[in-house]
Amino acid sequence: MVYLKHKFAKISLGIYLILNLVFAPVVNATEIIISDNGTGSDNSVSMEVGTTTIVEQTNNVNVENNVTVNSNTGDNVASDNSGDFAEITTGSTTTNIGIENNLNTSTASVSCCESNLSAEINGNGTGSGNNINVIEASSTTASINQTATVINTVQGHSNTGRNTADNNNGNVSITTGKIEIIGKIINGPINTSIINLPSGTSGFNAKVGSNGSDSKNAIFVDLLGNSSLYIINNAYLINDVNWDLETGKNVASDNNGNVSIDSGDILFDFFISNNANINITDITCCDIFDPGEPEEKQEEEEETPEEEVNEEDSDDDNDDDEGEILDEAAAIEAGGPGIAGLSDTSSENAQTLFFWAGLIMMILGVRFIGQNISSKKLEIFKN
Questions:
Q1: In terms of Cα–Cα distance, which of 138, 147, 125 is closest to 34?
Q2: Which of 183, 208, 210, 227 could form a disulfide with 270 if both were Cys (CB 3.0 to 4.6 A apart)?
Q3: Which residues, in sequence order, are bridge partners of residue 136?
Q4: Which residues contact 177 (CB under 8 A, 6 or more apart)?
């Protein structure tokens, strides 16, 4: 059975990985460009981009388990015998009971909206005024409400005793069997919530270059990200276990011979485990990559002919030349220059896969430990 469970877990995980790669999130690109406008022109673009995601899950469950067990090998009578020997031997009883409740599991995984928003002011004339205003807002709200009521009732009676041997002429022997009760109640996982939410907004790339002299260029960006998580888990668990076990209460009176009474042992092993209200929350992704300060490049000094130096010194400055954009400020995801962007190492797919793989292994581990504790205790008692 353990092998089958492990095999099923591997197959399920493999299917999930394949589906996650096939149904990858769609990347939406939005590009704002102000370019090639004439001298003295005023150009302005304002844009608002917003995404709202709401996840609501409600689970309510009521479970009631009632188990009643009766076993009896006793209540035997051997009286008024005239022979030399009267004997009563009763058999042993063994009872195994297992109850397991696994209820209410909510999972929610919201991926970042990789909009790849970019803004560019490029190639505008002298004295022009160019402004880009961008507001990018992302709001994610997850609400989980789970209620579980579980009532487990186990009642049992097992007897090998209450045997009677009276008024016998010879010797009397009463031997009763042993009683073994092995049981477990495993409640859990109950009310498990597994939430993966994004934090912040997606990357933003900006470029200002190759504009004329005395031009005024500005890009204003507001990145607003809000994630709200509400989890309410209520678990009401009642475990009521009652047993009446007897190997004694044997009677041997008014006998003429020797009397021997041997009562059997009682082994009672009952394991109860409650594992409820488990919250696993992972708030990641949408981190903005900061390229930091550019590294100083050491260029090898080369000998330059004196004539070329003089020619360079005599040239006038040209404000229309293109500026240089450092390699460190290029956003890899955008495929071009920029000042900020998502890090190429912040793979959302990889983080999601690791998150779910670890979660599945943890749940299987909890169940495996609970199921094996009682079996190990049984082996110890038997040995």
A1: 125
A2: 183
A3: 49, 223
A4: 73, 89, 90, 91, 92, 93, 160, 247, 264
Distance in angstroms (rounded) separating the CA atoms of residues 322 and 208: 10
Radius of gyration from C-alpha coordinates of the chain: 40
CA trace torsion 307, 310, 311, 314 (10° rounding): -160
Token look-up 């709401």 returns 54
- Per the listing, tokens 């690109």 go with 29
Contact in structure between 267 and 377 (CB atoms under 8 Å): no
Residue 318 has pLDDT above 50, yes or no: no
Whether 254 contacts 165, CB under 8 Å: no
CA angle (191 as vertex; 272, 195 as ends), nearest 5: 135
- SS3 (DSSP) at 81: coil
Between 356 and 238, name the one with better pLDDT: 238
Answer for the pair 132, 207: CB distance below 8 angstroms, yes or no.
no
pTM to 2 decimal places: 0.60
Kindly report whether the peptide bond that precedes residue 305 is cis, defined as omega within 30 degrees of 0.
no
CA angle 351, 145, 142 (to 5 degrees): 40
**Predicted pLDDT of residue 223:** 82
54-76 mean pLDDT = 95
How far is the C-alpha of 28 from the C-alpha of 138, rounded, in Å? 14
Query: Is the previous residue joined to 291 through a cis bond, with omega within 30 degrees of 0?
Result: no
Q: Which residues pair with 282 in a beta bridge?
A: 196
